[in-house]
Amino acid sequence: MALALHALAVLAVVLVAARPARRMATLLRQPPVIGEIALGLLVVPVLTTTADPSLANTVLSAEVTDHLHTVGLAGLALYLTGVGHSARQRRSEVPLSSYGWLLAGSLLPGLFAGMLVSGWVVWRDAPAERGTAPTAALVLLLAAVFAVTAVPVLARILTDRGIADTTEGRLSLLVAVSIDTLTWLILTAALAAATSGGGRLVRAVAVIAAGAVVALVLRRLLGRKAVGRLCARWPFPAAIVLCAIAIAAAMATEQVGLTAIFGAVLVGIAVPQDGKQGPRSRTVRTVQRCGLLFVPVFFVTAGLQLATDRPAGFSWATLALVLTFATAAKVGGGYVGARAARLPTGTALRFGVLMNTRGLTEIAVLQAGLSAGIFSSGLFVSLALMAAVTTAATGPLLSVVDRRYPTTYGSATRPEHGTVTSTATGVPPRPASEELSHDEA
Hints:
The chain is an all-alpha fold. The chain has helices at residues 2-27, 32-50, 55-59, 62-86, 96-124, 135-147, 151-161, 167-195, 198-222, 225-233, 235-255, 260-270, 279-308, 316-340, 345-355, 359-371, 377-392, 394-404, 432-435, and strands at residues 419-420, 430-431.
Protein backbone atom coordinates (compact mmCIF):
# COMPACT_ATOMS: atom_id res chain seq x y z
CA MET A 1 0.00 0.00 0.00
CA ALA A 2 2.81 2.39 0.93
CA LEU A 3 4.58 1.63 -2.34
CA ALA A 4 1.41 2.32 -4.32
CA LEU A 5 0.89 5.68 -2.59
CA HIS A 6 4.56 6.52 -3.14
CA ALA A 7 4.28 5.72 -6.85
CA LEU A 8 1.05 7.75 -7.17
CA ALA A 9 2.71 10.75 -5.50
CA VAL A 10 5.70 10.59 -7.86
CA LEU A 11 3.34 10.16 -10.82
CA ALA A 12 1.45 13.32 -9.82
CA VAL A 13 4.71 15.27 -9.50
CA VAL A 14 5.88 14.06 -12.92
CA LEU A 15 2.61 15.07 -14.61
CA VAL A 16 2.70 18.52 -12.99
CA ALA A 17 6.41 19.11 -13.69
CA ALA A 18 6.09 18.00 -17.32
CA ARG A 19 3.94 21.02 -18.18
CA PRO A 20 6.56 23.75 -17.49
CA ALA A 21 9.21 21.49 -19.07
CA ARG A 22 7.19 21.42 -22.27
CA ARG A 23 6.70 25.17 -22.07
CA MET A 24 10.43 25.76 -21.64
CA ALA A 25 11.20 23.59 -24.66
CA THR A 26 8.71 25.60 -26.72
CA LEU A 27 10.36 28.86 -25.68
CA LEU A 28 13.68 27.41 -26.84
CA ARG A 29 12.08 26.53 -30.21
CA GLN A 30 12.24 22.82 -29.46
CA PRO A 31 9.43 20.24 -29.65
CA PRO A 32 7.72 19.98 -26.23
CA VAL A 33 8.68 16.31 -26.00
CA ILE A 34 12.33 17.40 -25.74
CA GLY A 35 11.42 19.21 -22.53
CA GLU A 36 9.89 16.03 -21.09
CA ILE A 37 13.01 14.00 -21.88
CA ALA A 38 15.24 16.74 -20.47
CA LEU A 39 13.18 16.77 -17.27
CA GLY A 40 13.90 13.09 -16.75
CA LEU A 41 17.59 13.64 -17.48
CA LEU A 42 17.87 16.46 -14.94
CA VAL A 43 15.92 15.01 -12.01
CA VAL A 44 18.60 12.62 -10.75
CA PRO A 45 21.55 15.08 -10.99
CA VAL A 46 19.49 17.82 -9.28
CA LEU A 47 18.43 15.55 -6.42
CA THR A 48 22.00 14.27 -6.03
CA THR A 49 23.72 17.68 -5.98
CA THR A 50 21.17 19.74 -4.03
CA ALA A 51 20.25 17.20 -1.35
CA ASP A 52 21.44 13.98 0.21
CA PRO A 53 22.90 11.76 -2.56
CA SER A 54 20.77 8.90 -1.29
CA LEU A 55 17.58 10.92 -1.79
CA ALA A 56 17.36 10.04 -5.49
CA ASN A 57 17.48 6.33 -4.68
CA THR A 58 14.83 6.78 -1.99
CA VAL A 59 12.39 8.90 -3.97
CA LEU A 60 12.98 7.10 -7.27
CA SER A 61 13.53 3.55 -6.16
CA ALA A 62 13.58 0.76 -8.73
CA GLU A 63 10.07 -0.35 -7.73
CA VAL A 64 8.68 3.17 -8.18
CA THR A 65 10.32 3.75 -11.55
CA ASP A 66 9.07 0.34 -12.72
CA HIS A 67 5.51 1.41 -11.89
CA LEU A 68 6.03 4.72 -13.66
CA HIS A 69 7.40 2.94 -16.70
CA THR A 70 4.32 0.72 -16.83
CA VAL A 71 1.99 3.74 -16.63
CA GLY A 72 4.01 5.56 -19.29
CA LEU A 73 4.05 2.51 -21.56
CA ALA A 74 0.28 2.13 -21.21
CA GLY A 75 -0.19 5.81 -22.09
CA LEU A 76 2.12 5.42 -25.08
CA ALA A 77 0.17 2.36 -26.27
CA LEU A 78 -3.15 4.25 -26.15
CA TYR A 79 -1.68 7.27 -27.89
CA LEU A 80 -0.08 5.19 -30.65
CA THR A 81 -3.35 3.34 -31.19
CA GLY A 82 -4.80 6.63 -32.34
CA VAL A 83 -1.69 7.34 -34.39
CA GLY A 84 -1.96 3.99 -36.16
CA HIS A 85 -5.64 4.57 -36.86
CA SER A 86 -5.13 8.00 -38.46
CA ALA A 87 -1.75 7.53 -40.16
CA ARG A 88 -2.97 5.67 -43.20
CA GLN A 89 -1.96 6.82 -46.63
CA ARG A 90 -4.61 8.51 -48.74
CA ARG A 91 -5.05 7.68 -52.39
CA SER A 92 -4.31 11.28 -53.38
CA GLU A 93 -0.82 11.20 -51.82
CA VAL A 94 1.43 8.55 -53.35
CA PRO A 95 0.67 5.25 -55.12
CA LEU A 96 1.68 2.05 -53.38
CA SER A 97 4.65 1.63 -55.72
CA SER A 98 6.04 5.01 -54.65
CA TYR A 99 5.81 3.97 -51.00
CA GLY A 100 8.68 1.59 -51.75
CA TRP A 101 10.86 4.56 -52.72
CA LEU A 102 10.04 6.31 -49.44
CA LEU A 103 10.89 3.20 -47.44
CA ALA A 104 14.07 2.47 -49.38
CA GLY A 105 15.34 6.05 -49.11
CA SER A 106 14.69 6.14 -45.37
CA LEU A 107 16.08 2.68 -44.61
CA LEU A 108 18.89 1.62 -46.94
CA PRO A 109 21.25 4.62 -46.53
CA GLY A 110 20.96 4.24 -42.75
CA LEU A 111 21.83 0.57 -42.92
CA PHE A 112 24.86 1.36 -45.10
CA ALA A 113 25.97 4.18 -42.78
CA GLY A 114 25.83 1.81 -39.81
CA MET A 115 28.00 -0.70 -41.64
CA LEU A 116 30.57 2.01 -42.44
CA VAL A 117 30.71 3.14 -38.80
CA SER A 118 31.10 -0.47 -37.66
CA GLY A 119 34.16 -0.66 -39.93
CA TRP A 120 35.54 2.45 -38.22
CA VAL A 121 35.00 0.93 -34.78
CA VAL A 122 36.64 -2.35 -35.78
CA TRP A 123 39.60 -0.49 -37.30
CA ARG A 124 40.11 1.66 -34.17
CA ASP A 125 39.65 -1.35 -31.88
CA ALA A 126 39.41 0.98 -28.87
CA PRO A 127 38.49 -0.82 -25.60
CA ALA A 128 36.08 2.02 -24.71
CA GLU A 129 34.14 1.41 -27.94
CA ARG A 130 34.60 -2.19 -29.05
CA GLY A 131 32.59 -4.80 -27.16
CA THR A 132 33.28 -8.47 -26.70
CA ALA A 133 30.63 -9.76 -29.12
CA PRO A 134 31.46 -11.02 -32.63
CA THR A 135 31.91 -8.47 -35.42
CA ALA A 136 28.70 -9.65 -37.12
CA ALA A 137 26.69 -8.59 -34.06
CA LEU A 138 28.33 -5.14 -34.12
CA VAL A 139 27.60 -4.64 -37.83
CA LEU A 140 23.96 -5.65 -37.44
CA LEU A 141 23.39 -3.52 -34.37
CA LEU A 142 24.93 -0.36 -35.83
CA ALA A 143 22.93 -0.89 -39.01
CA ALA A 144 19.78 -0.88 -36.88
CA VAL A 145 20.96 2.16 -34.89
CA PHE A 146 21.46 4.30 -38.00
CA ALA A 147 18.29 3.12 -39.75
CA VAL A 148 15.82 3.60 -36.90
CA THR A 149 13.23 6.38 -36.67
CA ALA A 150 11.57 6.89 -33.29
CA VAL A 151 7.81 6.52 -33.74
CA PRO A 152 6.81 7.81 -30.25
CA VAL A 153 8.86 11.02 -30.49
CA LEU A 154 7.98 11.52 -34.14
CA ALA A 155 4.28 11.18 -33.38
CA ARG A 156 4.51 13.72 -30.56
CA ILE A 157 6.41 16.20 -32.76
CA LEU A 158 3.78 15.87 -35.48
CA THR A 159 0.98 16.40 -32.96
CA ASP A 160 2.71 19.33 -31.26
CA ARG A 161 3.36 21.08 -34.58
CA GLY A 162 -0.15 20.36 -35.89
CA ILE A 163 1.07 18.44 -38.95
CA ALA A 164 -0.01 14.91 -38.04
CA ASP A 165 -2.75 15.02 -40.69
CA THR A 166 -0.61 16.41 -43.51
CA THR A 167 1.00 14.45 -46.34
CA GLU A 168 4.46 14.43 -44.78
CA GLY A 169 2.99 13.66 -41.37
CA ARG A 170 1.04 10.59 -42.44
CA LEU A 171 3.72 9.26 -44.77
CA SER A 172 6.54 9.72 -42.24
CA LEU A 173 4.57 7.77 -39.62
CA LEU A 174 3.73 4.96 -42.03
CA VAL A 175 7.37 4.62 -43.08
CA ALA A 176 8.64 4.98 -39.49
CA VAL A 177 6.43 2.14 -38.25
CA SER A 178 7.67 -0.09 -41.08
CA ILE A 179 11.30 0.81 -40.36
CA ASP A 180 10.92 0.25 -36.62
CA THR A 181 9.50 -3.22 -37.21
CA LEU A 182 12.43 -4.09 -39.48
CA THR A 183 14.86 -2.48 -37.04
CA TRP A 184 13.72 -4.67 -34.17
CA LEU A 185 14.18 -7.71 -36.37
CA ILE A 186 17.75 -6.59 -37.13
CA LEU A 187 18.33 -5.91 -33.43
CA THR A 188 17.05 -9.39 -32.61
CA ALA A 189 19.45 -10.84 -35.18
CA ALA A 190 22.31 -8.85 -33.63
CA LEU A 191 21.49 -10.12 -30.13
CA ALA A 192 21.20 -13.65 -31.51
CA ALA A 193 24.67 -13.31 -33.10
CA ALA A 194 26.06 -12.02 -29.80
CA THR A 195 24.58 -14.84 -27.73
CA SER A 196 24.33 -17.63 -30.33
CA GLY A 197 20.57 -17.65 -29.82
CA GLY A 198 19.07 -18.08 -33.27
CA GLY A 199 15.69 -19.06 -31.83
CA ARG A 200 15.12 -15.46 -30.74
CA LEU A 201 15.02 -14.24 -34.34
CA VAL A 202 12.63 -17.01 -35.41
CA ARG A 203 10.31 -16.10 -32.55
CA ALA A 204 10.36 -12.41 -33.50
CA VAL A 205 9.45 -13.16 -37.12
CA ALA A 206 6.66 -15.46 -35.95
CA VAL A 207 5.27 -12.75 -33.65
CA ILE A 208 5.21 -10.18 -36.46
CA ALA A 209 3.47 -12.59 -38.82
CA ALA A 210 0.95 -13.63 -36.16
CA GLY A 211 0.32 -9.99 -35.24
CA ALA A 212 -0.48 -9.11 -38.84
CA VAL A 213 -2.94 -12.02 -39.08
CA VAL A 214 -4.62 -11.08 -35.80
CA ALA A 215 -4.93 -7.46 -36.97
CA LEU A 216 -6.65 -8.58 -40.18
CA VAL A 217 -9.09 -10.78 -38.25
CA LEU A 218 -9.76 -7.99 -35.73
CA ARG A 219 -10.35 -5.52 -38.56
CA ARG A 220 -13.02 -7.79 -40.06
CA LEU A 221 -14.74 -8.18 -36.71
CA LEU A 222 -14.64 -4.46 -35.91
CA GLY A 223 -15.93 -3.61 -39.38
CA ARG A 224 -19.32 -5.22 -38.71
CA LYS A 225 -22.29 -2.86 -38.49
CA ALA A 226 -23.20 -4.22 -35.07
CA VAL A 227 -19.85 -3.04 -33.68
CA GLY A 228 -20.46 0.46 -35.06
CA ARG A 229 -23.88 0.55 -33.41
CA LEU A 230 -22.40 -0.59 -30.10
CA CYS A 231 -19.72 2.11 -30.25
CA ALA A 232 -22.39 4.73 -30.97
CA ARG A 233 -24.68 3.56 -28.17
CA TRP A 234 -22.06 2.90 -25.48
CA PRO A 235 -18.99 5.01 -26.38
CA PHE A 236 -17.40 4.92 -22.91
CA PRO A 237 -17.46 1.09 -22.48
CA ALA A 238 -16.24 0.75 -26.08
CA ALA A 239 -13.30 3.03 -25.30
CA ILE A 240 -12.45 0.98 -22.19
CA VAL A 241 -12.46 -2.26 -24.20
CA LEU A 242 -10.23 -0.72 -26.88
CA CYS A 243 -7.89 0.60 -24.17
CA ALA A 244 -7.55 -2.90 -22.72
CA ILE A 245 -6.87 -4.43 -26.14
CA ALA A 246 -4.24 -1.81 -27.02
CA ILE A 247 -2.39 -2.11 -23.71
CA ALA A 248 -2.47 -5.92 -23.85
CA ALA A 249 -1.12 -5.93 -27.42
CA ALA A 250 1.67 -3.49 -26.54
CA MET A 251 2.71 -5.39 -23.42
CA ALA A 252 2.59 -8.73 -25.27
CA THR A 253 4.89 -7.59 -28.08
CA GLU A 254 7.31 -6.07 -25.57
CA GLN A 255 7.36 -9.27 -23.51
CA VAL A 256 8.43 -11.36 -26.51
CA GLY A 257 11.35 -9.04 -27.26
CA LEU A 258 9.80 -6.69 -29.83
CA THR A 259 8.80 -3.09 -29.33
CA ALA A 260 5.46 -2.18 -27.74
CA ILE A 261 5.01 0.24 -30.65
CA PHE A 262 4.28 -2.65 -32.99
CA GLY A 263 1.37 -4.03 -30.99
CA ALA A 264 -0.21 -0.64 -30.31
CA VAL A 265 -0.04 0.58 -33.91
CA LEU A 266 -1.42 -2.72 -35.18
CA VAL A 267 -4.49 -2.27 -32.99
CA GLY A 268 -5.00 1.23 -34.37
CA ILE A 269 -4.69 -0.02 -37.94
CA ALA A 270 -7.14 -2.83 -37.19
CA VAL A 271 -9.92 -0.38 -36.30
CA PRO A 272 -11.72 0.52 -39.57
CA GLN A 273 -12.02 4.18 -40.43
CA ASP A 274 -15.61 5.37 -40.64
CA GLY A 275 -15.24 9.10 -41.17
CA LYS A 276 -14.20 11.81 -38.78
CA GLN A 277 -17.50 11.66 -36.87
CA GLY A 278 -17.99 7.91 -37.15
CA PRO A 279 -18.50 5.99 -33.89
CA ARG A 280 -15.31 3.92 -34.29
CA SER A 281 -13.15 6.96 -35.02
CA ARG A 282 -14.64 8.82 -32.05
CA THR A 283 -13.83 5.84 -29.83
CA VAL A 284 -10.23 5.81 -31.07
CA ARG A 285 -9.88 9.55 -30.46
CA THR A 286 -11.11 9.08 -26.89
CA VAL A 287 -8.48 6.38 -26.37
CA GLN A 288 -5.78 8.58 -27.90
CA ARG A 289 -6.67 11.52 -25.65
CA CYS A 290 -6.46 9.26 -22.58
CA GLY A 291 -3.05 8.09 -23.68
CA LEU A 292 -1.85 11.62 -24.33
CA LEU A 293 -2.39 12.43 -20.64
CA PHE A 294 0.21 9.85 -19.59
CA VAL A 295 2.66 9.92 -22.50
CA PRO A 296 4.85 12.47 -20.65
CA VAL A 297 5.43 9.82 -17.97
CA PHE A 298 6.99 7.54 -20.60
CA PHE A 299 9.42 10.20 -21.80
CA VAL A 300 10.34 11.40 -18.31
CA THR A 301 11.04 7.87 -17.05
CA ALA A 302 13.14 7.21 -20.15
CA GLY A 303 15.17 10.29 -19.28
CA LEU A 304 15.50 9.03 -15.69
CA GLN A 305 16.92 5.75 -16.94
CA LEU A 306 19.47 7.57 -19.07
CA ALA A 307 20.49 9.79 -16.16
CA THR A 308 21.29 6.79 -13.98
CA ASP A 309 23.40 5.10 -16.68
CA ARG A 310 26.85 6.71 -16.59
CA PRO A 311 29.09 5.10 -19.15
CA ALA A 312 32.70 6.30 -19.37
CA GLY A 313 34.97 6.77 -22.37
CA PHE A 314 34.35 9.09 -25.29
CA SER A 315 35.85 10.01 -28.69
CA TRP A 316 35.16 13.33 -30.40
CA ALA A 317 36.20 11.83 -33.73
CA THR A 318 33.64 9.04 -33.39
CA LEU A 319 30.94 11.53 -32.38
CA ALA A 320 31.63 13.72 -35.42
CA LEU A 321 31.57 10.68 -37.68
CA VAL A 322 28.29 9.27 -36.37
CA LEU A 323 26.57 12.69 -36.45
CA THR A 324 27.62 13.29 -40.04
CA PHE A 325 26.68 9.83 -41.27
CA ALA A 326 23.40 9.73 -39.33
CA THR A 327 22.15 13.08 -40.62
CA ALA A 328 23.26 12.48 -44.20
CA ALA A 329 21.71 9.02 -44.29
CA LYS A 330 18.32 10.03 -42.93
CA VAL A 331 17.77 13.58 -44.20
CA GLY A 332 19.52 12.97 -47.52
CA GLY A 333 18.18 9.45 -48.02
CA GLY A 334 14.65 10.43 -47.02
CA TYR A 335 14.73 13.41 -49.39
CA VAL A 336 16.00 11.35 -52.32
CA GLY A 337 13.40 8.65 -51.67
CA ALA A 338 10.60 11.21 -51.47
CA ARG A 339 11.68 12.89 -54.69
CA ALA A 340 11.84 9.49 -56.37
CA ALA A 341 8.24 9.05 -55.18
CA ARG A 342 7.49 12.36 -56.97
CA LEU A 343 6.72 14.39 -53.88
CA PRO A 344 7.30 18.17 -54.09
CA THR A 345 10.66 19.53 -52.93
CA GLY A 346 9.30 21.11 -49.74
CA THR A 347 7.36 17.98 -48.77
CA ALA A 348 10.40 15.80 -49.55
CA LEU A 349 12.66 17.93 -47.35
CA ARG A 350 10.19 17.83 -44.47
CA PHE A 351 9.89 14.08 -44.87
CA GLY A 352 13.68 13.65 -44.70
CA VAL A 353 13.95 15.85 -41.61
CA LEU A 354 11.15 13.95 -39.85
CA MET A 355 12.80 10.61 -40.59
CA ASN A 356 15.94 11.88 -38.81
CA THR A 357 14.06 11.79 -35.49
CA ARG A 358 15.63 8.97 -33.48
CA GLY A 359 14.83 9.73 -29.86
CA LEU A 360 13.98 7.01 -27.39
CA THR A 361 13.65 4.09 -29.79
CA GLU A 362 17.33 4.49 -30.58
CA ILE A 363 18.17 4.69 -26.86
CA ALA A 364 16.36 1.38 -26.29
CA VAL A 365 18.36 -0.22 -29.12
CA LEU A 366 21.61 1.18 -27.70
CA GLN A 367 20.89 -0.09 -24.19
CA ALA A 368 20.20 -3.56 -25.57
CA GLY A 369 23.52 -3.50 -27.42
CA LEU A 370 25.43 -2.27 -24.38
CA SER A 371 23.89 -4.94 -22.14
CA ALA A 372 24.80 -7.67 -24.66
CA GLY A 373 28.42 -6.51 -24.85
CA ILE A 374 28.17 -5.65 -28.55
CA PHE A 375 29.87 -2.31 -27.91
CA SER A 376 31.34 -0.53 -24.90
CA SER A 377 30.42 2.60 -22.98
CA GLY A 378 32.43 5.05 -25.10
CA LEU A 379 30.52 4.23 -28.28
CA PHE A 380 27.27 4.25 -26.30
CA VAL A 381 27.94 7.89 -25.31
CA SER A 382 28.62 8.96 -28.91
CA LEU A 383 25.53 7.21 -30.26
CA ALA A 384 23.29 8.48 -27.45
CA LEU A 385 24.47 12.05 -28.11
CA MET A 386 23.80 11.53 -31.80
CA ALA A 387 20.24 10.43 -31.00
CA ALA A 388 19.68 13.49 -28.81
CA VAL A 389 21.16 15.95 -31.32
CA THR A 390 19.30 14.60 -34.36
CA THR A 391 16.02 14.58 -32.44
CA ALA A 392 16.53 18.11 -31.08
CA ALA A 393 17.39 19.33 -34.58
CA THR A 394 14.05 18.19 -36.02
CA GLY A 395 12.06 21.25 -34.92
CA PRO A 396 14.57 23.91 -36.04
CA LEU A 397 15.20 22.16 -39.37
CA LEU A 398 11.45 21.94 -40.05
CA SER A 399 11.19 25.68 -39.38
CA VAL A 400 14.01 26.36 -41.85
CA VAL A 401 12.27 24.27 -44.51
CA ASP A 402 8.95 26.00 -43.79
CA ARG A 403 10.54 29.40 -44.39
CA ARG A 404 12.08 28.26 -47.68
CA TYR A 405 9.02 26.33 -48.86
CA PRO A 406 5.98 27.89 -47.14
CA THR A 407 2.91 25.76 -46.54
CA THR A 408 -0.62 26.47 -45.40
CA TYR A 409 -0.83 23.83 -42.72
CA GLY A 410 0.10 25.79 -39.58
CA SER A 411 -2.06 24.04 -37.02
CA ALA A 412 -3.83 22.39 -39.91
CA THR A 413 -6.61 19.92 -40.00
CA ARG A 414 -7.48 18.00 -43.11
CA PRO A 415 -11.17 17.16 -43.25
CA GLU A 416 -12.41 14.03 -44.94
CA HIS A 417 -13.72 15.95 -47.95
CA GLY A 418 -10.22 16.85 -49.12
CA THR A 419 -9.74 20.47 -48.00
CA VAL A 420 -7.08 21.96 -45.82
CA THR A 421 -8.01 24.41 -43.11
CA SER A 422 -5.39 26.43 -41.27
CA THR A 423 -6.25 28.29 -38.09
CA ALA A 424 -2.70 29.46 -37.52
CA THR A 425 -1.93 31.12 -40.86
CA GLY A 426 -5.34 32.39 -41.87
CA VAL A 427 -4.79 31.05 -45.38
CA PRO A 428 -8.03 30.13 -47.16
CA PRO A 429 -8.77 26.45 -47.62
CA ARG A 430 -7.20 24.81 -50.65
CA PRO A 431 -8.15 21.55 -52.36
CA ALA A 432 -5.97 18.69 -51.22
CA SER A 433 -5.17 17.81 -54.83
CA GLU A 434 -3.28 21.09 -55.19
CA GLU A 435 -0.88 20.35 -52.35
CA LEU A 436 1.02 17.66 -54.18
CA SER A 437 1.11 19.60 -57.44
CA HIS A 438 2.88 22.48 -55.71
CA ASP A 439 6.63 22.32 -56.15
CA GLU A 440 9.27 24.96 -55.62
CA ALA A 441 7.90 28.17 -57.08
